[in-house]
Amino acid sequence: MPDHRPYRVNVAGDRVHDHAVQATQAVQRPSSRGRHPVSTRYSPGSPDSSGFAPQGRYVLPSFVERTTYGVKEMNPYNKLFEERIIFLGVQIDDASANDVMAQLITLESIDPDRDISIYINSPGGSVTAMAAIYDTMQFVKPDIQTVCIGEAASAAAWLLAAGTPGKRAALPNARILIHQPATQGGRGTGSDLEIQAREILRIRERMEQILAEHTGRPIDEVSRDIERDKFLTAADAKEYGLIDDVFTSIKRR
């Protein structure tokens, strides 16, 4: 029978039903916030660490899956969630951090004894949002497997390193970037600027401690390494202690 549900036409001229568009918008929504006071030098609409400005995306496909309970409509993110995989493929801000934290806590409540995987392809973002995800990763009971697919830059690199020891990995052509946090410029009186300066130094010190803890590197070495941008290949990241393995094929858990 012909499908009479409301639809839209995407850039390729294909019919896309409204429910699929709504699902896509819920999964991949632009951030409603501006740049954070302390971030890792990335903002929506600006070039990412590879020099390319983010572009619009295609409509996320949906598919029908038949189960013993009937037929249900799925999209790739739903399917990944069923497999206990969280995909962090956007800038790290308050919205994406809340999504990741909600999934971590939900998956723990479903089964506290099964591993959770976080696949990362992110240019980084807010340090405070990263810290919220980091604390939740340490808070939940399941082991957290982290896998870098593409890029884990800035704040995302800290999350990659924060996975359970022995369960952190990257694909062969992945790239990891570590550097110190940056401000977006301060406003206010001299006293206000002094307070802001002390805060960013405190944040940097804490980030150094976290990276040293998860890599086994001395804090003074980490401090020197993040003074300027430090790019690492997957093999370099393994040697540095950010990850434990370089995957060339899917590792079944």
TrEMBL record:
Primary location: cytoplasm
EC number: 3.4.21.92
GO molecular function: ATP-dependent peptidase activity; ATPase binding; serine-type endopeptidase activity
Cellular component annotations (GO), alphabetically ordered: cytoplasm; endopeptidase Clp complex
Bias kind Polar residues: ranges: 40-49
UniProt feature coiled coil, ranges: none
Matching InterPro entries: ClpP (IPR001907), ClpP/crotonase-like_dom_sf (IPR029045), ClpP/TepA (IPR023562), ClpP_His_AS (IPR033135), ClpP_Ser_AS (IPR018215)
Active site, renumbered: 154 (nucleophile), 154, 179
Keywords: Cytoplasm, Hydrolase, Protease, Serine protease
Enzymatic reactions: Hydrolysis of proteins to small peptides in the presence of ATP and magnesium. alpha-casein is the usual test substrate. In the absence of ATP, only oligopeptides shorter than five residues are hydrolyzed (such as succinyl-Leu-Tyr-|-NHMec, and Leu-Tyr-Leu-|-Tyr-Trp, in which cleavage of the -Tyr-|-Leu- and -Tyr-|-Trp bonds also occurs)
Transcription regulation in keyword set: no
Keyword match Isomerase: no
Annotated function: Cleaves peptides in various proteins in a process that requires ATP hydrolysis. Has a chymotrypsin-like activity. Plays a major role in the degradation of misfolded proteins.
Subunit structure, interactors included: Fourteen ClpP subunits assemble into 2 heptameric rings which stack back to back to give a disk-like structure with a central cavity, resembling the structure of eukaryotic proteasomes.
NCBIfam families, per database record: PRK00277.1 (NF001368), PRK12553.1 (NF009205)
Protein name: ATP-dependent Clp protease proteolytic subunit
UniProt organism field: Actinomadura craniellae
Lineage, top ranks: Bacteria, Bacillati, Actinomycetota, Actinomycetes, Streptosporangiales
